[in-house]
Amino acid sequence: MTTHPLRIAAYFFLVLLLSACAPKFPPPGEVSDLRLLPQATGLYVPRFGETEHLISELDQQQLAGDFLARYFAPWDAWDGESADDLDLFWGLRRYQDREVYGENLLPVPGGWLEEMKRRSSPELFPSLVHPAVTVGPVSLRVLPSLGPIFNDPTSAGQGFPFDMLQNSLIPAGTPVRVIHASPDGDWYLVTAPHVAGWVRPWEVAWVDHAFMETFRGAKLIAMTRDGEVLRTPHGMYALHGRVGMLLPHSDEPAPAGMIAVLTPQRRADGWAELHTAFLAKQGAEPWPLPPTVERYVRVLDGLLGQPYGWGGMYENRDCSALIQDVQALFGIAMPRNSRAQAQAGRVVDLSDLDATQKERSILEHGVPLLTIVNLPGHVMLYLGPDPASGRPVVLHSIWGLRIEEPRGRGPRVSTPGRWVLGRTVITTLTPGAELPTLIKPQGLLVERVTSMTILGER
């Protein structure tokens, strides 16, 4: 049977017509902001002298003193009353009578919470109390389990990668205090400078008075690049660096182009020892770093494009971890979650303004590199104005934008209801405004901005 040429022509005309009428979508993971705004921090930060300090020397000294007091607090004297302000077992209450999902995205079988109660044993708290130090990057878990717990994976913004038991990630060399242990001894509950959670015993090592005095008394070296390898004097791997990680300086002479630090190592008996290791000078500096535009730009540019990491999953960063780790380099102590960070400085309320007024206020009153722009569940670091449009530009680690769930021939998305960006990016306050399925106005970040927080003031 022969198809009539007119029928073929009509078919192709219809295909072209439908294609012309179909909504235009960028490639997955992209929005116009990422095409129009060069992903280079220094293009947006006002250049009022790259070596000029954004914080006065006196203010930075005071901020650094506050930082150290908080950083070493887990090693200070502790008793049961010290935990009164910490809700250490909130996870047991949160998941009471709630359906949750496991790594196979199926409902977790009944009885899992009872097992978590057995492992947590809150009735025995505190069963083990001793200062310690992390000997590698450590994930702090809400409950003593490596298995993930997801909310309904079919709902927008739920499921992977939001493992609700992932509380935070802390780097090697972080002072902690073990304050409880599971009955089997295979999990420790620890407090860190800014967070608490469950870890495996081999992820920490006990410290004695001499260890703590050596660590406290030394000049600290800050890691300024992720993935920088620290090696022993014999060239063996010791640790890898991470932005925000602090280690004591070692007095041993370092090879040319290297810097010497003391790294915590766990002995077979569970106690910590400090051993010298070397890393490239390009990946570390004496702490706190001078709070200059040049230093901030160098660090932030090194983090651009890093995949989003809820609670530090896969040793990546979410929005609040990004800000916390960067500001730590300059001696500014930040809480761990976005809600607390929004209150960590001088707060300027923006909730009663419309979108245009919010942007104008940020431009007029925001301090580049020291201003957090806040909305419920998300924080962004203000960089400065876009030279082309004059609009405020922010740097943030973002998972995705709110979109309508696809129907029929809708766009290909990795997560229903979210246009995933999934990394650290530079955007305006309206990324994805051009997406045909963006939920408006709620999908526009600026519409949900409630305040900005100015850091570095005393």
What features would you describe in this structure?
The protein has three domains: 32-55 and 291-454, endopeptidase fold (from Nostoc punctiforme) (Alpha-Beta Complex), CATH 3.90.1720.10; 69-201, no CATH class; 212-286, SH3 type barrels, CATH 2.30.30. 22% of the residues lie in helices and 24% in strands. The protein is built from eleven helices and 20 strands. It has helices at 5-21, 32-36, 57-71, 90-94, 112-120, 209-217, 293-303, 319-328, 338-341, 355-365, 445-448; strands spanning 130-134, 138-141, 166-170, 175-181, 188-191, 196-199, 204-206, 220-223, 229-231, 237-240, 246-248, 258-266, 272-280, 284-286, 346-349, 371-375, 378-385, 392-402, 418-427, 451-454. The strands form six sheets. It has a six-stranded antiparallel sheet with strand order 15-20-16-17-18-19. A five-stranded antiparallel sheet has the order 6-5-4-1-7, with no helix packed on it. It has a three-stranded antiparallel sheet with strand order 11-8-14, covered by helices on one side. The radius of gyration is 25 Å and the shape is globular. The termini are far apart. Mean pLDDT is 92; it is low at 6-21.
